[in-house]
Design brief:
The chain is α/β, with parallel strands linked by helices and about 180 residues long. It has five helices and eight strands, in the order αβαββββαβαβαβ. The chain folds into two domains: about 1-65, no CATH class; about 75-175, Vaccinia Virus protein VP39 (Rossmann fold), CATH 3.40.50.150. It has helices at about 10-15, 25-35, 90-100, 130-135, 155-160, and strands at about 20-25, 40-45, 50-55, 55-60, 75-80, 110-115, 140-150, 165-175. The longest helix is centred in the middle third of the chain and has 14 residues, at about 90-100. It starts with 8 loop residues before the first helix and ends with a strand.
């Protein structure tokens, strides 16, 4: 999970039997994630990042762009619920290219984006359209739109910020 923060999705994935690898720049978020779960992670350090691990959840305190193919050699799937939408438009192509460069061929990415009138809310999360996802990833992956749903009524905080339309899009990307 790139830019995992202290997402409880990591607990759900672990509960499904997956080993979880998160990447997060903020040491505070990593510490808060483990302490919020009552876990005392083991700590290790490499030349590039610190690693915190407990009960099948491993989080690298690292800049996503510092990760290499070697770091991701055992990864076969990515859950991106928050990283692409957290980035401003000028960073997204670099993020997408780096992700596909460090993952093994055949890896799958479950990508969640939001689409709304960007001028109504500055972000993050930023609006990322279906067309933008296609443009970013189709040179490197098969892109399949799995679901689209109107979520504005379930997101009162966005309504309160003046957003009039919000759609969640869920994609499956399969890297070539």
């Amino acid at each position: 999970m790139p830019l995992c923060g202290k997402s409880l999705d990591m607990l759900w994935l672990r509960g499904q039997g997956y080993r979880v690898l998160g990447v997060e720049l903020s040491v505070i978020a990593v510490r808060d994630f483990f302490s919020g779960q009552g876990k005392s992670p083991a700590h290790s350090r490499s030349d590039k990042f610190e690693c915190c691990e407990a009960e099948g959840i491993r989080i690298l305190c690292a800049d996503f762009f510092d990760l290499s193919k070697e770091d991701m050699a055992q990864v076969c799937a990515v859950y991106d619920r928050a990283s692409l939408v957290a980035l401003p438009p000028e960073m997204r192509a670099r993020h997408a290219r780096h992700l596909v460069d460090i993952l093994p061929a055949g890896s799958q990415v479950l990508l969640v984006t939001f689409d709304y009138p960007q001028e109504q809310m500055p972000g993050p999360p930023f609006a990322v359209s279906v067309d933008e996802v296609q443009a970013l990833y189709s040179p490197y992956a098969a892109v399949r739109l799995l679901a689209q749903q109107d979520i504005l009524d379930r997101q009162p905080r966005f309504k309160a910020r003046g957003v009039t339309r919000m759609q969640e899009n869920i994609f499956l990307l399969t890297l070539r």
